[in-house]
Amino acid sequence: MLFFKRYFLIILFQLLCSTVPFAQSSSPNEISLAGTWYFRLDKNDVGEQEQWFDKNLNDEIKLPGSLTTNNIGDDISLTTPWTGDIIDSSFFTKPEYAKYRQPGNFKVPFWLQPSKYYKGAAWYQKEVTIPQAWNKQNISLFLERCHWKTTVWVDNNKAGSQMSLGAPHEYDLSSLLTPGRHRITICIDNRVHEVNPGPNSHSISDHTQTNWNGIVGKVVLIEKPLLHIENVRLFPDIDKKQVVVLVDYKKTGDNLQKAIISLQATSGNKHAASLQPITAEKDLKENTGTINLTYPMGDKPLLWDEFNPQLYNMHVSLRTAKESDDRNIAFGMRRFSTDKTQFLINGRPTFLRGTLECAVTPLTGYPSTENSYWKNIFKVAKSYGLNHLRFHSWCPPEAAFNEADSAGFYLQIECSSWANQGATIGSGLPLDTFIYNESERIVNNFGNHPSFCMMTYGNEPAGKNHKAYLVKFVDYWKQKDNRRLYTTGAGWPVTDSSDYNSTPDPRIQAWGEGLKSIINRQPPSTTYDWNNIISKWQHPTVSHEIGQWCVYPDFKEIEKYTGVLQAKNFEIFRDFLKEHGMQRLEDSFLLASGKLQALCYKADIEAALRTKGFGGFQLLGLNDFPGQGTALVGVVNAMWGDKGYITAKEYSQFCNSVVPLVRFSKLIYNNDEIVSAPVEIANYGSKEIQNGKATWQIKDAKGNVLFQGNLNAAHIPFGNGINIGEIKASLSSIKNAEKLLVEVAVEGYKNSWEIYVYPNQLPEVNNVYVTQTLDDKAIQVLNNGGNVLFNLKQGTLAKNKGGDIAIGFSSIFWNTAWTHGQAPQTLGILCNPEHEALKYFPTDYYSGYEWWDAMSHSNAILLDSVAKNIQPIVRVIDDWFTARPLGLLFECKAGKGKLMVSGIDLTSNINERPEAKQLLYSLKKYMTSAGFNPSQQIDLRTIQSLTTDEKL
Fold this sequence. Notes:
alpha+beta; Jelly Rolls; Immunoglobulin-like; TIM Barrel; 5 domains; eight-stranded parallel β-sheet; seven-stranded mixed β-sheet; 48 strands; EC 3.2.1.23; beta-galactosidase activity
């Protein structure tokens, strides 16, 4: 009866109150503060001195929200005090950016651009009316997401300050909020003060979510009974089939001694066993304490994992004779553990197929607290075969955990820091204490979520004593909470104390490796793995930030940035392309570079899956990273939308819980060879495969099956490196150059690879003079009306004609702005595969492995240094920062003859290079046909100057 009386009084009082309408309240014990607030910017840091908390602020703002979503702040300019390193500062000096440095047309190339910007203190104020029913009760102010230091006053009384980037700010205002009208004032400061987590930390940086100022998510006053639940911690034990429940309580008043605590677990699964409530009477002598209970989960509790994310709800009730407090906590019965070098989920091996979530929030500039937002992210990630998300140097809101629980995703959470490049950890600075406090806040708020499987301090630490500090941090948490696994830092250091290793060593391209990487140095194969790297470690290894393969910007995205961040960087890059006369090619550049990007990701992911006993990988990333100079590394865009060159279905063939794999020693063959390759499978599915069907096929370009066979799937246990047979086929029946498709299918899972077969013997083609220098004979042939193929030896192209462009097979790694121009500096080729010059060289319009040899023996010719508007037969896609017209092959008239200019060396060591031999043959056949009739005349002196720095 007392409960209903209190409920009625609250309704009545709030209906009479105009400052906070009752319609905004979500429950009888909450008053929502969402809506109109008053604010004032404190640019000169005088607010506290002038006691703004005791004065009426006049300007209006909507909360939840940020200053930027309310269009408050300064215009972007050369003096904008960005948060985050700008490695390539050429924007501020280079003449090509001059027009973008002007007011009214200001555009930055290094990240998405907010509509407004403000760094400093901002004051927010709202009047509230406290109902009589809340008299002498506990009242707290709950701010779900603030950025990032808050200080609160009630009327003219200071309630305190808090700093947290990854957890709610909650203030106990019980002694300050008596029944009646009060003014709540909050000062929020988004500057780095005493605690410096690192300017590039995604928790604070303008690289991604922006360094916003405001409050988002739930903004409420909460009334709590005199005896109330402070926190509930659930520790599932799948072996004992029970949950240890720790209920932290707090009480006000010595007269409260006896309390009844009740637990009831339920499941939404109709097949779940019915569970009985348990009740206990407790004598609560202390004002704060913890009640420890064990709840039995029945004989067959439903287990949570990626395949069956079964969730339970634990209802906790703490009652006295006069009032009660209740909590509902979602949890899962799961154990995420390790066995030697493998991760286990509920005792079964699993493999982490992950990507990074870097707080990329183009529409709001801050992380969403809405479940629907995160539901879409996990849906997309799952469709691409992933089961894991790493939150790089930040912790997401509650909604992300909710949806990860439902989707069955394994999360790595980080305590808001990237202590590097302007910050250090373990140096005795305030950050050292902050990390411990932040980790406590994160675990207290989100620790019951089954998806919360892994935790680390943050990303890539620096500091003289960082290793010792992080070892102690890991040891602390391993002893304190066994519900998840811990490692010292994302990337490094690798230590024996960690539950798992995070290291960048196992990947096909490393920072600074350039053209010496596996994919750029070694001829195409699928045999390499990371066994030698991980053999020295006893823990599971997760490869850190693999991939980082770029694609050309999709300029159609520009119109999708309808929120606070605009793609002004894309506008700059589109202008560059237009200025070089290639705007018509923007879609072709996107699709062609995207196909190469997908090939590179396939190579990276399969190498990880081939590594026996490997722990998993974390991509950087599945979606684009719009900061750090603009890193377009995603096969989906910054808003998780498809880009059009690879589907989720295609991607999940090589990235999935079960993936067939083939170890090809090479992908380029002559037709006098035999394809012989062992077939393996990585099985991290929900069950072992028994008496399965497994086959292989080799098809031609028309889909005709040329060769086929069966594989052994009688018993495929969990794990990888499991041999299931061999592909073996003689290629002697293939007479012409062919691109073939090798497919392996195992119980509904399919994977495929392209191989290329060339005739070992080719007919002679006469009447074409092939040379690596435009010597006297070549000039004589041309002046006599003959045909010349001028193929430049690699390294002989003049620097000002393209010789200074680092070209390789792979796509650009991360981006050239952030890596100081790391090679390769191009994004593959674009060609018309129907062009007669390529008739005998089977290819698609983009770089496949048939182009590895050419790109490894080539120069990218700057076409403008030869003539304007040359339309090359094979074009090289340039970096979007320079957008130069580049070519590998073009034709022209020269003298009285006809000339084919090749940036590819087609003659050196030709007998060891079947691709070059075949391409040379195809070009010569074209040059002796009627179709070879170039229209553009180019002076011979211009062609000769390609190998000199002479400017004509």
